[in-house]
Specification:
The chain has two domains: 104 residues, no CATH class; 91 residues, no CATH class. With 206 residues, the protein is an alpha+beta fold. The protein contains six helices and 13 strands. Strand 10 and strand 11 form a beta hairpin. The protein is globular and about 50 Å long. Bound molecules: zinc ion. The site of zinc ion (ZN) has 7 residues, from loops.
Length: 206
């Protein structure tokens, strides 16, 4: 049971897990994807609340060990002040959890996917230099393309970008062969592997 405070100021306890094992609970993969994981209904006003409470999400058969960190703690993670449990990677906010679980579901390498996002951010910034693109991985389509959504290019529009599997394999090969080379080496900051490390923690931002 976890304590939740609704926007209506009602505080209540909800039956939400603080740890989930996706091998034991395979349906949770889909509920994470659909956005219903960690949701509950406020008993006072009936609102559906989508939370991002700190939660451990493990998938032993895929060697995945994640801690979902609330979006409110993003700055603590980026500045290296968030205490990560030994052996766990951090994902910040619900969207990053859904994204990373999809990467593992599709048998992809998280570092290679973040490296691809870095290239897509560069590309998006070339065409709209004033934008602040946020890129999410959505899955693999029927033609084996990796599908990404790009938010923040124009108001509320979402651009779809597809990356052929062949390009993914090339990037995978290069991050695996040279993990210490930039920009790949900058994608990981302690337990936090994300293109966000480059967007916010770049060399001239310190
Ligand atoms: Zn409420």
């Amino acid at each position: 049971m976890r304590k939740i405070t609704c926007n209506c100021e009602q505080t209540f306890t909800a039956d939400l897990p603080d740890e989930v094992d996706l091998d034991q609970s395979p349906d949770t993969v889909q509920s994470i994807n659909e956005g219903t994981f960690l949701s509950c209904i406020c008993p006072a006003c009936g609102a559906e609340l989508h939370t991002d409470l700190e939660t451990r999400v493990v998938w032993p058969s895929r060697s995945m060990k994640l801690v979902l960190v609330p979006e409110l703690s993003r700055f603590a993670v980026l500045s290296g002040r968030y205490e990560a449990a030994e052996g766990y990677d951090l994902v910040v906010g619900y969207a990053e959890l859904a994204d990373r679980v999809t990467v593992y579901r599709d048998g992809l390498d998280p570092l290679a996917v973040e490296a691809l996002k870095f290239h897509l951010v560069q590309k998006a910034l070339e065409s709209s230099p004033e934008s602040a693109p946020i890129i999410s991985f959505e899955g693999v389509d029927a033609d084996s393309n990796l599908v990404f959504h790009v938010h923040g290019l124009r108001d509320s529009e979402i651009a779809v970008m597809k990356v052929p599997e062949k390009l993914y394999q090339t990037v995978y090969g290069s991050v695996t062969a040279k993990p210490d080379e930039e920009p790949h080496s900058l994608l990981r900051n302690g337990a936090y592997l994300s293109v966000q490390n480059l967007a916010f923690g770049g060399s001239d931002n310190d």
